[in-house]
Amino acid sequence: MSKTIYMINGPNLNLLGTREPEIYGYETLNDIASNCRKIGDHHDLTVDFRQSNHEGEIVDWIQEAIEHAEAIIINAAAYTHTSVAIHDALRSFDGYVVELHISNPHLRESFRHTSYVSTAANAIVAGLGTMGYELVIPLVSEILATA
Ligand code: CA2
After folding, report:
1. 25, 47, 71, 127: which sits with the fewest CB atoms below 10 Å from its CB?
2. Rounded CA gap, 63 and 59, in Å?
3. Strand, coil or helix: 102
4. Closest to 117 in 3D by CA, of 108, 107, 130, 126
5. How far is the CA of 13 from the centre of ligand 1 (A)?
6. Average model confidence (pLDDT) for the chain?
7. How many helices (H) and strands (E) does the chain have?
8. What is the pLDDT of residue 26?
9. Is the CB of residue 75 below 6 angstroms from any atom belonging to ligand 1?
10. Residue (of 77, 84, 78) closest to 101 by Cα position
11. Does ligand 1 have an atom closer than 6 angstroms to the CB of 53?
12. What local confidence, expressed as pLDDT, does residue 19 receive?
């Protein structure tokens, strides 16, 4: 049976491709989701791709992943820099966790230099543009296969 990865996206990422393309590129979140599902199929992984503007809903999805997923790839967007609740939920997930960012937050405003996700993640991918979403799936596939 194929393994499942939750790809969880936080607030405002539904606007991708419509604003600030110099930072976030031209791909929409739907484009990214459909590419990720295809790459997942290629690696015999089910990619469950989601976005929410609500912190509690993201916490609920992480808790759901405890029962349903082997890995979480999370771009918590602005909640990265504020959310102890998302940190705590990720800490209760036993599978593999990747923190993902389109931009490199360390090259940006100082309020983006703190991450509550990093200390609950196994790996961090940042600054590769929207390509980061697609590149991380084969890596997670490899890690899950050797775990
Ligand atoms: O670089 C990333 O992926 C971020 O997680 C994106 C977040 C930001 O708060 C983090 O510091 C870094 C912001 C997502 C907002 O996405 C938009 C997309 C298009 C237009 C406006 C916002």
Report:
1. 127
2. 6
3. coil
4. 126
5. 6
6. 97
7. 5, 5
8. 92
9. yes
10. 77
11. no
12. 87
Q: pLDDT tens digits, residue range 47-67?
A: 999 999 999 999 999 999 999
State in Å: Cα 59 to ligand 1 middle: 19
Inter-residue contact 6 to 67 (CB < 8 Å)? no
* Alpha helices (H) in the chain, listed in sequence order: 21-24, 29-42, 55-68, 84-91, 131-146
- Condensed to tens digits (0 to 9), the pLDDT of residues 94-136 reads 999 999 999 999 999 999 999 999 999 999 999 999 999 999 9
Distances 41 to 47, 50, 57, 67, 103 between C-alpha atoms, Å:
8, 17, 26, 21, 26
- Ligand 1 atom with the shortest distance to the CA of 20: 20
d(CA 74, CA 146): 21
Average pLDDT over residues 31-46: 98
Mean pLDDT of 83-99: 98
pTM of the entire structure? 0.97
Look up residue 53 and give its DSSP letter: S
Task: Please report the atom of ligand 1 found closest to the CA of residue 127.
Answer: 1
Any catalytic annotation for residue 101?
yes
Q: Is 1 in the pocket of ligand 1 (CB under 6 A)?
A: no
